[in-house]
Amino acid sequence: MDYSFNLYNSLAPGGVCLALKKLVPLNGDAPVILCIGSDLSVGDSLGPVTGTKLKQQLAGLNCYVYGTLSKPITAHEVKYMNDFLKFTHPNSPIIAVDAAVGLAGDIGLIKIAKHGLKPGSGANKKLAKVGDVSIMGIIAEQSVFNYSLFSATRLNVIFKMSDIIAEGITSFVLDYIQNSCVRDAAVGAFKNFL
Fold this sequence. Notes:
5 helices, globular, six-stranded mixed beta sheet, alpha/beta
């Protein structure tokens, strides 16, 4: 099942958190967040802006965020990310965040789905899927000239979307870590009881 939240819905951050709770399995290590995009184009900067906010909000926690404004994960790096993530974080669910193009009526929607995403599809790139769960911000209408639309996107839209996504993911990760600690304590108590 896919979930969608409008950019101007004040309940969207909570919706993102709840959708992630339904889609991300609660076993294994803390989730890894992969934020895809480039800081060279406003429309493609949703991932790095979100990653930068997440790095600040999740600092000091056992949670990995890849793709920030200072170290973006672009199409050049994403080719290697699947193998890297499987090797480095074998038990962690991967949440992939990227900007996307869609129908005219979908602009401003944040879509969350229980499958990976294909980065660069809006720029006609053929890359492998990444992630176990995807979060896509629809920033422009799909057309033959998608790349030019990415540069015509308003920074305000990107910033609001990144706020919503970062707040939702932060709430989810904090809850995930707290539940993991409770679950580990319960398992430890049960083992001591035996």
